[in-house]
Amino acid sequence: DAEARLAVADAEIGVKTAAAEQALAKASAEAMASIESVAAEAAADIVAKVSGANVSAAQAASAVKAVLANG
């Protein structure tokens, strides 16, 4: 029956869509973590070069997270 096949296909598409959304969310989170890490390193280097002050990795990471959270 066509309706039953359509329902099965719709369910299969739903499962595949959910899996793709999860994979995309994971990739996005990993990319964002990588961006934050690079930004923190760059921020620490810039502060050191501009002001001569040494900023810890934790301080730089915290500052980057704050900027990203607040735009």
Characterize the structure shown.
The protein is mainly α. 90% of the residues lie in helices and 0% in strands. The protein has helices at 2-51, 57-70. The radius of gyration is 22 Å and the shape is rod-shaped. It starts with a helix and ends with a helix.
Helix content bin:
over 70%
Structural class: mainly alpha
Number of helices, where a helix is a run of at least 4 consecutive DSSP H or I residues: 2
Largest sheet data: none
The radius of gyration over CA amounts to: 22 Å
Average pLDDT score: 95
Query: What low-confidence regions span 5 or more consecutive residues with pLDDT below 50?
Result: none
End-to-end separation in angstroms reads: 53 Å
Tell me, briefly, the overall form: rod-shaped
Q: How many β-strand stretches?
A: 0
% residues in beta strands: under 5%
Order of helices and strands: HH
Please sum up the structure shown.
The protein has 71 residues and is mainly α. It contains 2 helices and no strands.
List the helices and strands and how they pair.
Blueprint: H1 2-51, H2 57-70
